[in-house]
Amino acid sequence: MTDSTPKKKAVTPPSTPTARAALPQSRTATLDELTAHAAPADEALSKLLALGLDDDQRLAWGRAIDSDVVLTAATAFAHGAYSALESLTEAQRDEVVGANLATVDLLVHACAALQARKSVWDRQSAEGDVSRSERRTAARKAMRDGIALRDRVYTGLRNVTPTNERDTLDAAVGTAVDAAALSRGMLGLATALRKRHAHADAAERKALDSLQLTLARAEALEAGAAEVKRTDDFVTGAVTATRVTQRELDLDDGTVVHLVGVVYRALRDSTATLATLVVPPLGELSRFFDRARPAPKPAAPSPPVA
Predict the structure, then answer these.
(1) Residue 80 CB coordination number (10 Å)
(2) Distances from the Cα of 72 to the Cαs of 100, 228, 298, in angstroms?
(3) What is the per-residue DSSP string for 226-253?
(4) Which residues lie below 8 Å from residue 293, measured CB to CB, with a gap of 6+?
(5) How far does CA 104 lie from the centroid of its chain?
(6) Which of 78, 104, 121, 220 sits 20 to 30 Å CA-CA off 130?
(7) Which residues, in sequence order, are CB contacts of 66 under 8 Å at separation 6+?
(8) How far apart are CA 102 and CA 183, in angstroms?
(9) Contact criterion met (CB below 8 Å) for 21 and 216
(10) Would you state the pLDDT for residue 237?
(11) Residues near 238 by Cβ (< 8 Å), separated by ≥ 6?
């Protein structure tokens, strides 16, 4: 006998991309954690969203707020935006018009770019007075730290590299006979780690992450290679400073504020149809996006007393 009882339609659970690193639940994520969680920037989407912004507006926003304040508020907002979007089902996310997870990824990458530029800005005045011996000390430290990081990642990655591909990995890493060779090897190792992730399936990527062979580790190698080169250049006199201007900082600030606004307005307007959607707070950036409130109407005059 056939069971004619109608079956309940399965509810689609929230879907979070499996390749993304987990974010902390009990505290605000750091920018490094958000960067590890973010997917690579969608350049086509970035260009599309840039159409709604010009340098004058970016500068106006950037000049109105300090970069550190922007980074603190935007980092907390991005974490909240990821949580809000990833709590939705795919069908619910389709109801959000004007922003998506890739838009939040762009915001995180913009924050990382701002942080990097701000770090250079903060170093400039100090580096102008650094003595040659101090520069040598910094260069030696960068070499030691770079070699230590390279060796840890190399050993771990070699353990999960097919034997017929290990010679290629060894050649990419090279030696550390000088700063230039170490920097090249760190970049080569970062590239090899990124390729390993790109060719892995979801289960393999999860296993790589569990071994701390993460994309964030590739970024650390790239940052370390840049630091090795930078400190060596100061010792050899190849450069006197990496100059960052206030205008460049203001433009980066404005880009971050713009992307926060794109995501915020999309989430805010979607609450009309998605009652459970939680719009993350803007913090110090709220003054840029608070809707103007209509002026109260004057009270009607009281009728004369008879």
Answers:
(1) 22
(2) 21, 28, 40
(3) HHHHHHHHHHHTS-S-----HHHHHHHH
(4) none
(5) 9
(6) 220
(7) none
(8) 31
(9) yes
(10) 62
(11) 232
Compute CA distances 127 → 78, 116, 180, 230, 270, whole Å. Answer: 32, 16, 21, 11, 48
Residues of the chain short of pLDDT 70, as ranges, are 1-19, 125-132, 237-242, 290-306
CB 128 within 8 A of CB 51: no
CA angle (194 as vertex; 155, 140 as ends), nearest 5: 55
For residues 153 and 160, give the distance between their C-alpha atoms in angstroms, rounded to a whole number: 11
Question: What b/e string do you get for 159-198 counting C-beta neighbours within 10 Å, with b at 16 or more?
Answer: eebeeeeeeebeebbeebeebeebbbbbbbbbebbbebbe
Q: How far apart are CA 169 and CA 162, in angstroms?
A: 10
Q: In this predicted structure, what is the pLDDT of residue 293?
A: 43
- For residues 107 and 34, is the Cβ–Cβ distance under 8 A? no
Residue with tokens 């040659």: 132
